[in-house]
Amino acid sequence: MPKIVDVQEKKQEIYRSATQVFLDKGYNNTTLLDIAKLCKMGRSTIYQYFKNKEEIFYEVSISFFSELVSNLDSIMLEESMSSTEKIKKMLSVFIFDSKADSQRFFQLAKVLMFLKENNSVFENKFKFFYLSVQDMFFQVVESGIYNNEIKQCDAESISIAIFGLAQSIILHTYVDTSRDNQKYFESICLMIDGIKA
After folding, report:
1. Where are the domains positioned within the chain?
2. pTM summary value
């Protein structure tokens, strides 16, 4: 009897391997043959699941950003935390998870920025994830204002500033790996304490 192949499992196996190849060689220097070798599959097998390298990269990107959004979303729904505690926890996930994975994070971001020039699907998806994360910070700040946990302020400006600081820390980590993110994180936490009601 022929072996039944789980299509989703096989796709995940391919894009897990592809992630490693993209990190090691960069997007432009990666070929489908490189990915096939790491997967221990033939190139023709990969074509059964993906049209091209760009489609594989798209899946890798979606997986990475979906996981980030899911982690932040679970913090937002945590009822036992105050709004400022949620903001700090979300920042912690964003800053420290991205630091641990900063090479992957920036490789994905760099290639997405390049590909979005030529592909509206990439551009729209990248914008969707970016704005989703930014909106999560906004919702928590707005909720904090409504619940009198955060001083009356412009929720949009505050959330954009907080999100911008987090992005800046990740960028610094990418440029200079010797930087201590914990100190930066603690400084942002002091600022967040300053908006408590």
Report:
1. 1-50, 60-193
2. 0.76
